[in-house]
Amino acid sequence: MGNSVLALDEDAASVAEAVRIRNALDPLLVEDALRHASADDVQAMRREQDRMRIAATELDGTAFIRANWALHARIAESSPHAMLRSFYLSLLEIIESHTLSATTPADEPLPEYIESRYDLHARLVDAIADRDRAKAAELIREHNATTVAGPAGDGTELSSLTP
């Protein structure tokens, strides 16, 4: 979640690096999804999007971020490029395996924050479904605009990650 705080295990530096690389690969995978996603792929993306909506409704930040990662994985799975897809999914696995929980900063109200992140991802899935390259490019830039990949505090939290 943009501007979120992830409580991580002892390997925060690896997560920061994985997030940085993942964000750099997002535009490639979105472009692949625009070109290659089938109706079944889009339907699967929408199922993951529904999991995000449910977590948002329940104000469960950790479930929301995990559903978000599942959506990103599903977008990646529509890529015909095995090496790119495999590398990206490995990065998501690193991030998820080291994440203990997710919360929002104290100065951001959780409901509005989660709703804005959900809305961005819903619009991204819509752009993929509509094959709208310009909109998808704009949304992935917005998605990654708030990303700061680096350890915060004592190194056990990572601030400002955008899933």
Features:
10% strand, disordered C terminus, 69% helix, 6 helices, 4-stranded antiparallel sheet, 163 residues, disordered N terminus, alpha+beta
Write structural notes for this entry.
- This protein has 163 residues and is of the alpha+beta class.
- It has six helices and four strands; from the N terminus they run βααααβααββ.
- It has helices spanning 12-36, 39-57, 61-77, 82-98, 110-130, 133-145; strands at 4-8, 99-103, 151-152, 157-161.
- A four-stranded antiparallel beta sheet has the order 2-1-4-3.
- Strand 3 and strand 4 form a beta hairpin.
- The longest helix has 25 residues, at 12-36.
- It is globular, with a radius of gyration of 15 Å.
- The relative contact order is 0.25.
- Residues 1-10 and 147-163 have low confidence and may be disordered.
